[in-house]
């Protein structure tokens, strides 16, 4: 029997929508693309972002404290956990339905609420840079800063947003359970939103006020599960040099050396394509035979077949 390709898919925000109704609609399209890969003979593990979702949860929890002064402010790590659960719930149901619609009855779907350990001394905690939540005006930003000690930063002339630390993942706490489920043939959704950020003190895990980049967490999970492919889905079919300029150049195949050169030349935006390319390079360079792919959700099957997308290899 031919060994199945093991694939970790990192879903971006465009695969999930920005509101609850959008998400319920988006996951149906997402499920079709994922089950297409399963029908191609692939073994799939799903990770996802949570930028809009964790912001929504965080805003809802702030509203609760305004309505009821006895309610303490909800830690960001708890907001990440909530977003993991409700995104997982919609994805899990959509995937199960799509599998059954195609007559596939032997692949259970499970969502793993995943904690990801970070280093409490990570320099990212000293320079919070990851924006979450909605835009507010200067007066509202000042009030949030004074009441909750939030760090508020102006964002591209659109208003102020809360920024939080985005430390690198060090350990996926539930990786053995994830591996057991994947090895048993289940379709697993894990490391949602990059994982719930925690630090370790002895045997105790403490939530951290941070959001982990889902591409770096997905890369770590792919390596830990000895995956063949890491697919990072985004809003463009391929990675480009000089993106959005007259000298724009789309890339199909990129060696690790070329990718590192492009990174050093500053071709990729720090809050957008850079972490995706860095995660792709990390995974593809970690072991011979591993390939990373960056492409659109609807092009993932063609990308695996080598027909489109940007692939990274040794």
Protein traits:
17 strands; 8-stranded mixed beta sheet; 38% helix; 314 residues; 24% strand; alpha/beta
Structural summary, described in words:
With 314 residues, the protein is an alpha/beta fold. It contains 9 helices and 17 strands. The strands form 4 sheets. An 8-stranded mixed β-sheet has the order 3-9-2-1-12-16-17-15, with helices on both faces. The chain has a 4-stranded mixed β-sheet with strand order 8-4-10-11. The chain has a 3-stranded antiparallel β-sheet with strand order 5-7-6. Helix 1 links the parallel strand 1 (5-11) and strand 2. Helix 2 packs across helix 3 and helix 6 runs parallel beside helix 8. The longest helix has 26 residues, at 76-101.
- The Cα radius of gyration reads 19 Å
Q: Count all strands and give the number.
A: 17
Overall mean confidence score, pLDDT: 90
Q: Termini distance?
A: 28 Å
Q: What amount of the residues lies in strands?
A: 15-25%
Derived structural class = alpha/beta
What's this model, at a glance?
By secondary structure, this protein is an alpha/beta fold.
């Amino acid at each position: 029997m031919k060994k199945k390709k093991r694939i970790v898919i990192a879903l971006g925000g465009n695969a999930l929508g920005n509101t609850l109704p959008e998400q319920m609609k988006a996951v149906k399209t997402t499920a079709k693309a994922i089950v297409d890969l399963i029908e191609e003979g692939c073994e799939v593990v799903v990770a996802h972002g949570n930028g809009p979702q964790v912001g929504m949860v965080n805003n809802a929890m702030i509203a609760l404290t305004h309505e009821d002064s006895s309610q303490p402010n909800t830690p960001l790590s708890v907001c990440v956990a909530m977003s993991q659960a409700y995104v997982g719930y919609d994805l899990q149901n959509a995937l199960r339905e799509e599998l059954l619609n195609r007559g596939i009855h032997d692949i259970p779907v499970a969502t793993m609420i995943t904690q990801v350990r970070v280093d409490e001394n990570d320099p990212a905690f000293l320079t919070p840079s990851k924006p979450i939540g909605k835009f507010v005006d200067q007066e509202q930003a000042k009030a949030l800063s004074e009441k909750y000690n939030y760090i508020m930063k102006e964002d591209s002339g659109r208003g102020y947003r809360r920024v939080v630390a985005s430390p690198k993942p060090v350990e996926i706490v539930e990786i053995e359970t994830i591996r057991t489920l994947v090895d048993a043939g289940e379709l697993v959704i894990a490391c949602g939103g990059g994982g719930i950020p925690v630090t370790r003190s002895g045997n105790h895990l403490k939530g951290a006020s941070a959001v982990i980049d889902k591409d770096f967490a997905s890369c770590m999970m792919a390596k830990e599960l000895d995956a063949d492919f890491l697919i990072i889905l985004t809003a463009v079919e391929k990675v480009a040099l000089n993106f959005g300029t007259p000298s724009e150049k789309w890339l199909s195949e990129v060696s690790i050396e070329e990718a590192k050169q492009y990174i050093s030349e500053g071709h990729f935006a720090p809050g957008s394509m850079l972490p995706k390319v860095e995660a792709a390079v990390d995974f593809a360079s970690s072991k011979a035979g591993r390939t990373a792919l960056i492409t659109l959700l609807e092009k993932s099957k063609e990308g695996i077949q080598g027909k489109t997308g940007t692939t990274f290899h040794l």
